[in-house]
Amino acid sequence: MNSKSTTWDIVIVGAGIIGCSIAWFLRNTPYKVLLLERAEPGGLATNAAAGILGPLNETEGPGPLLDLMQESLALYPDFVREIQAASGLSADYVPSGIISVATTESEEDQLEKRWIWQSGQGKDLKFLTGNSLRSAFPELANTVRAAIHYPHEAHVFAPRLLRGLLSALARQGISLRPGTSVRRIRPGSGDILVAETSAGDRIQGRKFVLTPGAYLNEMDIPPPIPPVIPANGQILSVRAPDFPIRTVVFYPPKGYFVPKLDGTVVIGATEELVGYQTRVTPGGLIEFLEPLRRVCPRLLDSPLQLTWSGLRPKTPDGLPVLGVHPEHPNLLFATGHYRNGILLAPVTGRKISGLITGQIDARTLSAFRPERFS
Ligand SMILES: Cc1cc2nc3c(=O)[nH]c(=O)nc-3n(C[C@H](O)[C@H](O)[C@H](O)COP(=O)(O)OP(=O)(O)OC[C@H]3O[C@@H](n4cnc5c(N)ncnc54)[C@H](O)[C@@H]3O)c2cc1C
User: Fold this and answer.
1) Could you tell me if residue 1 is inside a domain?
2) For residue 237, what are the domain limits?
């Protein structure tokens, strides 16, 4: 195919979980889709993620973000099943439930406040203390005094999900160009947009969807550009094949551990605004390892397997940016998913593909509109 003369129907810039999910939801449309990737797919955030799918654990109040996360969680079983069927690769999706624990009186008060508003909304959760907590989770340290149990939340192995998606997309004939960094996007003739790459190539598309994660503000595109900054997250895994807890556990102030199907336990994570540095520091790891001592000390004796870090795409209000550029109807955004991009991947794929095909009214995404910061 002569790429210089080709005009693609849809060009997606960034092959993380969000760009790939949008391409996946477009697979049964007549559109010719091209995915462009600066480096390796998912290299900034997706491959770093713990893969927790936990809407109720992630929100401090009701609102559009919680609704969006719950819609996405409900889409997950089918999303994973279809990708696995198309790729033959497992994403290690586990509807394990999540617990959020307290080890001090003030943490317990916080947990109780959360339980009151969430149970008042009719959400399915349990507040556990004393014997009910001990008998449900005997492996937790005695210092754990209370917990909320979210039985319907889940986790997935994010890099495996992405690998499956990439393989499924390739089998559907969707084109991916790794090593292609988009530097600039400008209107071309008629309704066409033109991207210039760092290598000096020009790529034409009828619509562009920008899914570059934390790198949106590094691209030269027509204003207004929604502000997205990187929030570095340090994280690690230990080898613990006999670890008896199968539920995801969150512990204060910001720690969690996720027992994976392959016998590793992922333990995380920091949140640091240090620009585009992906770094792992002893001080960062201590932040979530020290409080783990009060919750499940045996994990600290498991052999360390890997440490790594990644860049969460963060907006000023913590909500993703989903929708059409206010002045260029052929330019769409899907970024700023911050701590929950793995969870939000199916709903984002469905909504953005629905905007493109005209099956979704943009007003249903008004809380996430790109121009809300101007
Ligand atoms: C430590 C850590 C733990 C996390 N844990 C969870 C979790 O448990 N659950 C959860 O739901 N979320 C979690 N997240 C958040 C989640 O990883 C992100 O929200 C999500 O991966 C964002 O996906 P994305 O596709 O938008 O971005 P990315 O995965 O960053 O993908 C964007 C892609 O765009 C490419 N790109 C950028 N600029 C250009 C350009 N100019 N041209 C071409 N390509 C470009 C990049 O190379 C990259 O591959 C975690 C994140 C971190 C860092």
Assistant:
1) no
2) 95-152+229-314
170 falls within a domain: yes
pLDDT of 1 above 60: no
Ligand 1 touching residue 335 (CB < 6 A): yes
Task: State the closest ligand 1 atom to the C-alpha of 334, by its place in the atom list counted from 1.
Answer: 26
pLDDT at residue 4, rounded to an integer: 53
Name the strand (E) or helix (H) holding 312.
strand 304-314
For atom 6 of ligand 1, the residue with the nearest CA is 49
Same domain, 309 and 336: no
Q: How many domains does the chain have?
A: 2
**pLDDT-wise least confident of 127-131, 203-207, 246-250, 343-347:** 127-131
A 10 A CB-CB count for 191 gives 13
**DSSP labels, 112-144:** HHHHHHHHHTT---EEEEHHHHHHH-TTS-TT-
Tell me how far CA of residue 156 lies from CA of 82, 90, 95, 228, in angstroms.
15, 10, 9, 25
Q: Which of 35, 66, 69 is nearest to 52 (CA)?
A: 69
